[in-house]
Design goal:
It is built from eleven helices and 19 strands. With about 400 residues, the protein is an alpha+beta fold. It has three domains: about 80 residues, Beta Barrel (OB fold (Dihydrolipoamide Acetyltransferase, E2P)); about 50 residues, Dihydrolipoamide Transferase; about 200 residues, 2-Layer Sandwich (Chloramphenicol Acetyltransferase), CATH 3.30.559.10. Helix 7 packs across helix 8 and helix 7 crosses helix 10. The longest helix has 18 residues. The radius of gyration is 28 Å and the shape is elongated.
Length: about 400
């Protein structure tokens, strides 16, 4: 008997532990080399673990187990014989040959039903189905080998139960639920929690506020949006404008773009802006690199591409690395004002908020303007209070006069 031990591989420099989120192959099943046998969830991404040899798999770890790098996951018995292929049925009479052939040829759905992955949701799909209260058995998977994808889960809606027509006694009291459900936090959620506490406890974090009048930006988008989309195939959004404004000021004020490393400060001659993206499993902040050198269209395309990958759970570790400054937009959820927490090891984060029509005093007259509160949280060990205020004022001026931003003035 020849046994191959499957151990957690080295995934990235900063990753020391993963969670076995889901087995893709059942215990005792025959697997082929390079065939995914399970999924690992790290603090940054979900990864498939392929078999290193063909043979019968024996589970060692269980779903939900936290495993260190190098820990034993499973064993593969390479001496086990592959299952024999089923013999093709004898074709019937000549006149019914065409009909018989049609019956013997399995449809993609039928072929998928023979796989262990058939009917099993991916981690993101499983979470969505659980939130909707839908059983995986009632969903048809369109993924590889019939697996239920996130798109399948999003497209499935819970069936409405038939309304009983039996009259209910008026004296029947309402039922109150007292059920509690205990569920282990995902690795990403645990990592987010620990890093937020770490940022609060290990930085001298302060927040300064300002407000920006978006009248000119909204007029600019309205005037040029159609031509922008026609040329670039994507809309000109607020994120590219805010990112570009921050990048321009960060190049002028390198201390806001710096990172504290022990007793040394690391300054950057480039701006990599991490964009906070909400996903079903938690908040991720993949960076857009060299924002100072990108066009508005390139920034929008980069943000859109990262957002799609983040919500599909397909971001790679390299796409999660880096970042010298972060922007988070709580306004998409209706937040009026907040104090965002620094994304360590960075030294500052800009918080955008909802746009509200408010009366403002303009040249001695009261006018209704689209206003947004801005919040800059910063590490006071790296950035002085005066520098943080100056940074926010400079960003405000660029956004209120976007032509200066377009011209790099």
């Amino acid at each position: 008997m020849s046994i191959i031990e499957m151990k957690v591989p080295v995934i990235g420099e900063s990753i020391t532990e993963v969670t076995l989120s889901q087995w893709l192959k059942s215990n005792g099943e025959y697997v082929n080399i390079d065939e995914p046998i399970c999924e690992f969830e790290s603090d940054k991404a979900t990864l498939e673990f392929p078999a290193e040899a063909s043979g019968k798999i024996v589970h060692v770890a269980a779903e939900g187990d936290d495993l260190e790098i190098g820990a034993l996951v499973a064993k593969i018995d390479t001496s086990a014989a592959a299952p024999a292929a089923k013999a093709a049925p004898t074709p019937p009479k000549e006149e019914k040959k065409e009909e018989a052939t049609a019956k013997e040829t399995p449809t993609p759905q039928a072929a998928a039903s023979n796989s262990y992955a058939s009917g099993h949701p991916s981690p993101a799909a499983g979470k969505i189905l659980a939130e909707k209260g839908i059983a995986a058995a009632s969903v048809t998977g369109t993924g590889k080998d019939g697996r239920i994808t996130k798109a399948d889960a999003l497209a499935t809606n819970p069936s409405k139960p038939a309304v009983a027509k039996t009259p209910v006694a008026a004296s029947m009291p309402a039922a109150f639920s007292r059920t509690q459900t205990r569920k282990k936090m995902s690795r990403m959620r645990r990592t987010i929690a620990s890093r937020l506490v770490e940022a609060k406890n290990e930085t001298a974090m302060l927040t300064t506020f300002n407000e920006v009048d978006l009248t000119e930006i909204m007029a600019l988008r309205k005037k040029y949006q159609e031509r922008f989309v026609e040329k670039n195939g994507i809309k000109l959004g607020f994120m590219s404008l805010f990112s570009k404004a921050c990048a321009q000021v960060l190049m002028e004020m390198p201390q806001v773009n710096a990172i504290l490393d022990g007793n040394e400060l690391i300054y950057h001659d480039y701006v990599d802006i991490s964009i906070a993206i909400s996903t079903p499993t938690g908040l991720v902040v993949p960076p857009v690199h060299n924002v100072e050198s990108l066009s508005f269209a390139d920034i929008e395309k980069s943000i859109k591409g990262l957002a799609v990958k983040a919500r599909e759970g397909s971001l790679t570790l390299d796409e999660m690395k880096g970042g010298t400054f972060t922007i988070t937009n709580g306004g998409v959820f209706g937040s009026m004002m907040s104090t965002p927490i620094i994304n360590r090891p960075q030294s500052a984060i800009l918080g955008m908020h909802t746009i509200q029509q408010r009366p403002m005093a303009i040249d001695g007259e009261v006018k209704i303007r689209p206003m947004m509160y801005l919040a800059l949280s910063y590490d006071h060990r790296v950035i002085d209070g005066s520098a943080s205020v100056t940074f926010l004022v400079k960003v405000k001026k660029l956004l209120e006069d976007p032509m200066t931003l377009m011209m790099g003035l």
